[in-house]
Every structure is written in structure tokens, then in C-alpha cells.
Design brief:
alpha+beta, three-stranded antiparallel sheet
Length: 163
């Protein structure tokens, strides 16, 4: 229950005038992981990650389930991802006065996936426009990490919460 946890965080954290009360990471939907690895690679290129699952499960997996099973192991019971707007709204409902999305922290896997597969993903007729729009807007910083709208766009969305 993420909303209840956020409310409890807000309750126990001591407000500090103008200072960050908490820094939190949640899975990021505005990421290479969601829009390229799950939406394209696992659906259309190679789903061998799921080879141990029964065929009836593999054939009927939603994007959300593929995401969940690709993050913390194929038997992962729960793994949600949020857009910055979705998570910021949850934090505000929990009582935080200000929420700042810092971007998705860079990792070693997503830059390689992005460089290797964005071009072919954009040519894939089965890939939905939502994902293509995101991928068309991805740029790379001077170190080769993917960025979307000026922020790193990897799996771990980082937020600063103010009480």
C-alpha cells in the first residue's frame, strides 16, 4: 500500500523549513526500461527471461506484469512503476508540500539497451505510439546516459519530498 506508506513517512518525518524531508526511489515509468526494454525488447525480440513460466502466463502477460517480472525476478509478487506526475500526486495526497522529481538514476544496463535498440524499436509497426514518442525524444548526455526532457530516464525514479 504505497499511499499508506507515504502517509506514514510524512507523519514520522520532522519538518525542516525549506529542507528535504526525504529522498525516495520508486520504479520509473518514464524510463528506457518501460518504453524500450519491456515494451519492445521483451515483447518482440527476446522473452527468454520468462522461459520458466508456463506458456499460458507468457502469452497473456500485460506490460505491467512483464515489467514486474523483469525487475526483481520472474516470481516477483509486486513491483509498481509510476510516472513523475502519478508519484508526485501520491506524495502530495500523503501530506508532502513539495515534491521534486530528479530523474531516473543512471545505471549500466539501460544506456546499452538504448543505444542498441532505439532505432529498430522506432521501425517496429507493432510498438505503440506512446513508446515511440518517448523513444524519439531520448537524447544522451556527455557520458552516454539516456535522458528524456532534460533528466536521466532510467528505471529508478528519484524524488525529493518536503514536509
Amino acid at each position: 500500500s504505497p499511499q499508506a506508506i507515504l502517509k506514514e513517512f510524512h507523519r514520522v518525518l520532522k519538518p525542516k523549513e525549506g529542507k528535504v524531508s526525504a529522498s525516495i526511489m520508486v520504479y520509473n515509468k518514464e524510463s528506457i526500461w518501460w518504453h524500450l526494454y519491456v515494451a519492445y525488447y521483451l515483447r518482440f525480440i527476446d522473452n527468454s527471461l520468462f522461459r520458466e513460466l508456463p506458456d499460458n502466463i507468457k502469452e497473456n502477460m500485460s506490460m505491467e506484469e512483464m515489467f514486474r517480472r523483469s525487475t526483481d525476478g520472474i516470481m516477483c509478487a509486486k513491483a509498481e512503476c509510476y510516472t513523475p506526475d502519478e508519484f508526485s500526486e501520491m506524495c502530495k495526497k500523503a501530506g508532502f508540500s513539495k515534491v521534486v522529481y530528479k530523474g531516473g538514476y543512471p545505471n549500466t544496463l539501460e544506456p546499452d539497451i538504448a543505444k542498441k535498440y532505439i532505432e529498430s524499436a522506432l521501425k517496429e509497426p507493432r510498438l505503440e505510439e506512446e513508446h515511440k514518442r518517448f523513444l524519439k525524444a531520448v537524447e544522451f548526455d556527455h557520458e552516454g546516459y539516456p535522458m528524456y526532457e532534460g533528466k536521466h530516464c532510467c528505471i529508478g525514479g528519484v524524488y525529493l519530498l518536503y514536509s
